[in-house]
């Protein structure tokens, strides 16, 4: 019911340009991959907004890598596998923990300035990490510092051509091979970009939910594009909700970093009582899914819409130095972290699933790669360990570029690829209304706690929107909504199929983890039933 292409076109009559590599997205994955690839190739980087607008920009906590002599890749591996709840790929995790430190060194060489203590890289600890291995920048502005440094390199590079405010509608495929991308320019004109390789670095899916820490650009475009093209997507039921997003009248769901709890902040319900000891032995540093559901339980029990995060035991100077962005943002709403408890509630944060890739970042479609949050490399399993995502983007970005150098040139001329389904009618209902309705459906029926009744209701509500694929879509927000609808259907269908609770996926009607029956992945491909794949975690 979901078509391969969103719009009608005739490839032979479209304007065309060629490049070696297309990179779609400008977060850490896209920027780093483009820089590495541009050493010996021409790259066109396509971003639907400005170069600096991405999920990475808003990443506060930091990047996880083994730096300290007290730490080891083996410890990092154990922590990652534990958080991943039996669905991590052991080989992928090995790559992450062993190659991550060199990736951090490369970021430093490219101009990223991490915080120092006594002349050494400053390290902090976050939830479910056994050691202090989180590097950060400007206290709590790590993502912005990384994007700043990498974007400067991209902007000045002769072999990287940046297309801002362009939208990739679909990738073009033939015989299971990606030939390039169909792109819409800011003026509405469309162009076919032919490339030897196309790399999806389009970020996550936070905007599927009404309450999210993600910026408005996080509309799951890459997953939907890959799915329509026939690529396998995996583990879409696993959506991580960050436990502590600011919940205050007039304020956005601003992320209060896990690092705040890492530095000793405690959670209190509206009665002022600490409550995490009722839910997990690691208290506030338990895995995110456990903390998020604990907060939800306390909110329901006390009939409140939030709980409190309390770090008032720390002096004002320390908070200003360690968490300047969070401190200033809270202060702008009249909340002083040094004296006030901060009202927080869970919000959609990170997509563990995505486009299934091999260890070189290549999807099931030849010449189509995925890197960063859009990908499913096997690192995160059922629940991402805090701050592993930035490391993953660096490690697999490098591996993708190494694989690109092994590809033979694409010897191909546009064939008679023509799509004409007569889609002329524009959507009658305003896209902003459709988008809000979809987000509310996902919060209500496919949120932190799920059951069969809710999921079936959500699936039915989402399917009511399917006729939009027969409309003449032409604007960026219309393409985004089509991508959000596609990805929401994937999340809901997978959540309905997985009849157990594991990691970030919690079923009230199947509250226990079932390793015997469900220690496996769910694969989805267009026009096929969901396929089960045994996990290779050990």
TrEMBL record:
This is L-aspartate oxidase. It catalyses: L-aspartate + O2 = iminosuccinate + H2O2. Catalyzes the oxidation of L-aspartate to iminoaspartate. Its cofactor is FAD. Residues 435-527 form the Fumarate reductase/succinate dehydrogenase flavoprotein-like C-terminal domain. Its EC number is 1.4.3.16. It is an enzyme of class 1 (oxidoreductase). Its main location: cytoplasm. PANTHER family: L-ASPARTATE OXIDASE, L-ASPARTATE OXIDASE, CHLOROPLASTIC. Transmembrane segments: none annotated. SUPFAM superfamilies: FAD/NAD(P)-binding domain, Succinate dehydrogenase/fumarate reductase flavoprotein C-terminal domain, Succinate dehydrogenase/fumarate reductase flavoprotein, catalytic domain. Keywords: FAD, Flavoprotein, Oxidoreductase, Pyridine nucleotide biosynthesis. Belongs to the FAD-dependent oxidoreductase 2 family. NadB subfamily. Pathway: Cofactor biosynthesis; NAD(+) biosynthesis; iminoaspartate from L-aspartate (oxidase route): step 1/1. It is found in: Cytoplasm. The keyword Ribosomal protein does not apply. One of its GO terms (molecular function) is L-aspartate oxidase activity. Pfam families: FAD_binding_2 (PF00890), Succ_DH_flav_C (PF02910).
